[in-house]
């Protein structure tokens, strides 16, 4: 049987839980439109505004925590927040809805709350005194009580189930715990009002500062320098730090306080390692952290995808990309940030994970996809890529894999430019396309005898055509360049050359049910495919799936093995190609044209290490 107040009544509503704010919004709108006294229901607007600001504070702290390029040397726990934790904490903001309901009830029961003055300094002083003398000790003892076996198992264990502290972890708790927190946060506000010192500014200030310090304590990046406590030793009893609270999550019988360690000292529950660990973490902030074994060098795709970065919106970053129309109002701001990045930014750390004890990181070149097609921008982009490769070489990175347009043939010859310019490189430069080709080629059933290939003379198109012709599969290569077709034809074994056929129109494939799309095709061009066609693709962005009588494959992707530290573990095939290169310890660079002879070798190595194509996992 579920314990009372251990589950949220709206937990099955999903995103529709925000409809619960509807009555407040409706009442505020009605008063503004139809009533003479707009101030009568001003409390509705205040509650909605406070809720918005509370969510914004948590989001700012979340963004800061996920800006690994700023925080990586001050991490308290070195492992990242995995997708399971993100899923578990998805409804972290339930407590804001709960407290909005309680505040609405208070305003309806006590109408005088709507007539509070805007400012009263005495109210701030009174709320602070009440917080220190009542709220702090009340929370301390309530928290200790929640660690008793029954309450912990049925309630508080949910909060402690998050392995890595994060600002959203602060809200990840049961309704009963948040009702207790309502009391803790409400006593100073209620007391100040009863004393006659209440004000609107005091309510805003107390609630928002309370949330700020809750987020600070659940941050996985230390923000308080230890020098502060060296100069003011007593201050460590009056303000906690992220390190201090993180010890409570690892050693649960210590550090119970709300914000003031003084009460842990008085209750003999202060962890003696708190100050030492805090000093150790902050002392390392100026040093380089652990050197990654593998780096995936990516770039930003477009404005909309940029809004799905973990330091923008963590929840969106944990799910497959899709267009979300409500993000369109943020497009201008993101565009301005893109311009700032264009002028003043450098390659930065975006994400990381661990695989079999090896640290893998993703670095991002601060350029958007369209910029790669601007002739005047190519020199600067190559400079960013070169600097990233040289930095990886200095650090001792073993393999750096180039993503998407960072290995564009027209830009740098698939990485050849950098390898030729710096022959002394110890880091292995990899484009990863050999595994991409292997994933695409192993999607075909063995009875396929003919395929239609667009983007036929591209790097992947060339490798696909040469591999398939060796398997005695007829390849209709769509290209208007006879010269490029002939060049590929000469690479094929003499007895296989008749399996490569140049075509210049889509009509040539009207009887072929296996299309490999390496160049974007329009809906009209898709119309030439016969019913029942399957579209394999390695084109970015993917083609529009408009044919209901056909099927569409996803871009080549790989599921990493189970010992990967992030549960979903799906990466681009070219990313996985670099991982295989690193796991195998190969000493060669993988740049330029794809070596067709190595496709099967790379495929077998990937399977040996437990890397599986997503299509196989799903089937």
From TrEMBL:
InterPro entries: CER1-like_C (IPR021940), Fatty_acid_hydroxylase (IPR006694), NAD(P)-bd_dom_sf (IPR036291), Sterol_Desaturase_Related (IPR050307). The chain crosses the membrane at residues 12-30, 42-61, 96-116, 123-142, 325-344. It is found in: Membrane. It comes from the Eukaryota. It holds the Pfam family FA_hydroxylase. Coiled coil: none annotated. GO terms for molecular function: iron ion binding; oxidoreductase activity. GO terms for biological process: lipid biosynthetic process. The keyword Cell inner membrane does not apply. It is a multi-pass membrane protein. Residues 451-613 form the Very-long-chain aldehyde decarbonylase CER1-like C-terminal domain. Keywords: Membrane, Transmembrane, Transmembrane helix. The keyword Translocase does not apply. Its main location: membrane. Residues 129-269 form the Fatty acid hydroxylase domain. Belongs to the sterol desaturase family. This is Fatty acid hydroxylase domain-containing protein. It comes from Gossypium harknessii.
